């Protein structure tokens, strides 16, 4: 299967899951919000746990079905991954959401705030790749 076909199918499935969650429960499929609310002790935790388990189980199941490691091994060291995770967590708190909440759900609702956040996500990602690949010579790889 060509990579663009896999990307297309994955994108459709992400969009469909966001629509289904909004239509069935009136909730936005923002992963950072779903995950952080589990730590704050909200009452309706069941669907959140199932949603997050699905995110973890799906790539694992796909790798079993394909007979290959669809997940792959980390290409950077654990300290780099921890630092990146902390920065993502901080960014989602400051930005009031993550790429899934703003980029998928917020843009679908025509939110100007989500458009601005998504533009900054993309620009920051592009700048990060440029700095790591061209200025630092591939640090962490």
From TrEMBL:
<protein>
    <submittedName>
        <fullName>Membrane protein YedE/YeeE</fullName>
    </submittedName>
</protein>
<feature type="transmembrane region" description="Helical">
    <location>
        <begin position="46"/>
        <end position="65"/>
    </location>
</feature>
<dbReference type="Pfam" id="PF04143">
    <property type="entry name" value="Sulf_transp"/>
</dbReference>
<comment type="similarity">
    <text>Belongs to the TsuA/YedE (TC 9.B.102) family.</text>
</comment>
<keyword id="KW-0997">Cell inner membrane</keyword>
<dbReference type="InterPro" id="IPR007272">
    <property type="entry name" value="Sulf_transp_TsuA/YedE"/>
</dbReference>
<keyword id="KW-1003">Cell membrane</keyword>
<feature type="transmembrane region" description="Helical">
    <location>
        <begin position="6"/>
        <end position="25"/>
    </location>
</feature>
<keyword id="KW-0812">Transmembrane</keyword>
<feature type="transmembrane region" description="Helical">
    <location>
        <begin position="77"/>
        <end position="94"/>
    </location>
</feature>
<feature type="transmembrane region" description="Helical">
    <location>
        <begin position="115"/>
        <end position="136"/>
    </location>
</feature>
<keyword id="KW-1133">Transmembrane helix</keyword>
<keyword id="KW-0472">Membrane</keyword>
<keyword id="KW-0813">Transport</keyword>
């Amino acid at each position: 299967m060509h990579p663009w076909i896999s990307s297309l199918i994955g994108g459709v499935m992400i969009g469909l899951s966001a629509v289904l969650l909004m239509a069935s429960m009136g909730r936005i499929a923002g992963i950072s919000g779903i995950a952080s609310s589990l730590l704050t002790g909200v009452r309706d935790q069941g669907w959140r746990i199932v949603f997050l388990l699905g995110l973890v189980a799906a790539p694992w199941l796909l790798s079993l079905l394909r007979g290959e490691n669809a997940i792959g091994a980390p290409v950077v060291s654990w300290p780099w991954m921890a630092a990146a995770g902390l920065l993502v967590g901080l960014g989602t708190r400051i930005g009031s959401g993550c790429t899934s909440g703003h980029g998928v759900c917020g843009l679908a609702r025509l939110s100007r705030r989500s458009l601005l956040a998504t533009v900054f996500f993309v620009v920051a990602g592009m700048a990060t790749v440029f700095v790591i690949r061209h200025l630092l010579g591939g640090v962490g790889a």
